[in-house]
Automatic annotation (TrEMBL):
<feature type="signal peptide">
    <location>
        <begin position="1"/>
        <end position="19"/>
    </location>
</feature>
<dbReference type="InterPro" id="IPR017850">
    <property type="entry name" value="Alkaline_phosphatase_core_sf"/>
</dbReference>
<keyword id="KW-0378">Hydrolase</keyword>
<dbReference type="InterPro" id="IPR007312">
    <property type="entry name" value="Phosphoesterase"/>
</dbReference>
<keyword id="KW-0732">Signal</keyword>
<dbReference type="Pfam" id="PF04185">
    <property type="entry name" value="Phosphoesterase"/>
</dbReference>
<protein>
    <submittedName>
        <fullName>Phosphoesterase-domain-containing protein</fullName>
    </submittedName>
</protein>
<dbReference type="GO" id="GO:0016788">
    <property type="term" value="F:hydrolase activity, acting on ester bonds"/>
</dbReference>
<dbReference type="GO" id="GO:0009395">
    <property type="term" value="P:phospholipid catabolic process"/>
</dbReference>
Length: 405
């Protein structure tokens, strides 16, 4: 991490500057860093076309059929729209989290302490560009802005918080002090709720126990219902304020089959007539970006976000059209999304450069963010871009043209 050591002179309790190590995981280092950690809870009120708040909750490693038969998840799904053809983009966990905010997995095929260089943009840049407040709530993160690999439960020693499930922290562009302060633990969700200071975009990662990773879908279903049920009727603190909630899984458990996972959309932004329905359109983690772009008319990243299908409930309001992809959704699919293609973060080290975003893509009037065009728009880079305005994404069996698997 480029900014693993911050000198927090302004924040230090004493007048003397103290250095804290944000990647250190020893209890004493964590305690020292926590004492001077900055927490920010920005708010905004930018009207969207279909929703005014977007809440993403990710659970872990469960096959579609298993998730769709968990009683608590079924109970929740009945209160909204079931997404029956929603897919992870590869295995294992980390590249899926990376994909969900950055528009590619960059060939990642591991859960290492990877860092996307500061010139790779994510949805965070797009949101900030339009003044839309954001935060991440990562359960059991020991303090706001912690960049360490993991934090275990200090009593039980069980796995708790892991960096590989924290998408924003993997992007160096988000490690300025200002941005680190918006990566908070879940206890902060409740204080932000109480203070009516929830942001308009948030990504919630439950602990390794509560997301099912170290437990089971039964455990994760119980946690998810227990977390959401009181909030679904929450009027007093404005959690429900034209809010759209996506609950989904990072990846399917069985690597040898296609990477379909359960998705569901909940919240008061779901029109009454769609409650209890199923949307069988093809979606994947890039839809989490394209849907937000369409809703708030954001710029785009110029990667696989541009062509990704937009949740129909939102596309209906934004005038976007979606495309079916039978090769992924049919009973005998040819695309499985169960391996990564070559890329900078692939263990095979065949490719040592980053793919340039396609800075010329336009979807329904939405153009690539100006900063991205300035960084990557040069013709000498644009001749190497592999992104197109299409729903068809690569995987290990069908790598981008010119990039072997
Ligand atoms: C911060 O902590 C990490 C993890 O313990 C360690 O590898 C690194 O050397 C430390 N950095 C500094 C500047 O002390
Ligand atoms: C949550 O983060 C806050 C802010 O950094 C910190 O004060 C608090 O101790 C953390 N809570 C837990 C349970 O780690
Ligand atoms: C969740 O599990 C706890 C402990 O076993 C139980 O008391 C509770 O009823 C469960 N809640 C749901 C919604 O299943
Ligand atoms: C991906 O799934 C296909 C279809 O089941 C299978 O043939 C292939 O071996 C899988 N790949 C891996 C790496 O598991
Ligand atoms: C994983 O997803 C595929 C594709 O949707 C599904 O057919 C398969 O049943 C799932 N795996 C298992 C073991 O359920
Ligand atoms: C992006 O950053 C990486 C790492 O610092 C660097 O190698 C690459 O040249 C940069 N690319 C552009 C287009 O700025
Ligand atoms: C792209 O253009 C640069 C500069 O003109 C050139 O060096 C490079 O070989 C080209 N790459 C491809 C893939 O055409
Ligand atoms: C856009 C943005 O906030 N960029 C910052 C990302 O983090 C690096 C390193 O801390 C800063 O130098 C950038 O300004």
């Amino acid at each position: 991490m480029h900014s693993s050591t911050l000198v927090l002179s302004a924040l230090a309790l004493s007048s003397q500057a103290v250095a804290v190590n944000l990647t250190a995981t020893a209890a004493a280092d964590v305690a020292a860093a926590r004492a001077s950690a900055l927490t920010l809870s920005p708010t905004s009120n930018v009207k969207g076309k279909a929703f005014d708040r977007f809440v993403v909750i990710w659970l872990e490693n469960t096959d579609y059929d298993k998730a769709a038969s968990d009683p608590n998840l079924v109970w929740l799904a009945k209160k909204g729209i079931t997404l029956s053809n929603y897919f992870g983009v590869t295995h294992p966990s980390e590249p899926n989290y990376v994909a969900a905010i950055g528009g590619d997995n960059f060939g990642m095929d591991n859960d290492n302490v990877n860092n996307l260089p500061g010139n790779v943009s994510s949805i965070i840049d797009l949101l900030e560009d339009k003044g839309i407040s954001w935060s991440q709530y990562q359960e059991d993160m020991p303090y706001s802005g912690f960049e360490g690999k993991a934090w275990i439960n200090q009593q039980t020693k069980a796995n708790d918080y892991v960096r590989k499930h924290n998408p924003a922290i993997i992007y160096d562009a988000n490690t300025s002090q200002e941005r680190l302060a918006k990566n908070k633990n879940l206890t902060q969700f409740y204080s932000d709720l109480e203070a009516k200071k929830l942001p308009q975009w948030m990504f919630i990662t439950p602990s390794m126990q509560n997301d099912g990773h170290d437990t089971s879908v039964t455990f994760a279903g119980n946690w998810t219902r227990s977390f959401l049920e009181p909030l679904l009727d929450e009027k007093h603190h404005h959690f429900m304020a034209n809010t759209l909630i996506l609950v989904t899984f990072d990846e399917n458990h069985t690597y040898t089959s296609s990477n379909r996972v359960l998705g569901m959309l909940l919240g008061d932004a779901v029109p009454k007539k769609l409650i209890g329905t199923t949307d069988p359109q093809y979606y994947n983690h890039y839809s989490e970006i394209s849907t937000v772009e369409a809703n708030w008319n954001l710029h785009t990243l110029g990667r696989w976000d541009v062509g990704a299908n937009i949740f129909s409930v939102v596309a209906d309001q934004t005038g976007d059209t979606n495309t079916a992809w039978d090769a992924a959704t049919s009973a005998n699919p040819t695309h499985f999304f169960n391996t990564s293609f070559a890329g900078l973060f692939n263990s095979d080290r065949q490719v040592v450069t980053l793919p340039p975003p396609n800075t010329k893509l336009v979807r329904n009037g939405r153009k690539v963010l100006g900063r991205i065009v300035r960084t990557w728009g040069d013709e000498s880079l644009q001749n190497q871009t592999y992104y197109q305005n299409t729903v068809q994404i690569p995987d290990g069996m069908y790598p981008p043209q010119g990039w072997a698997n």
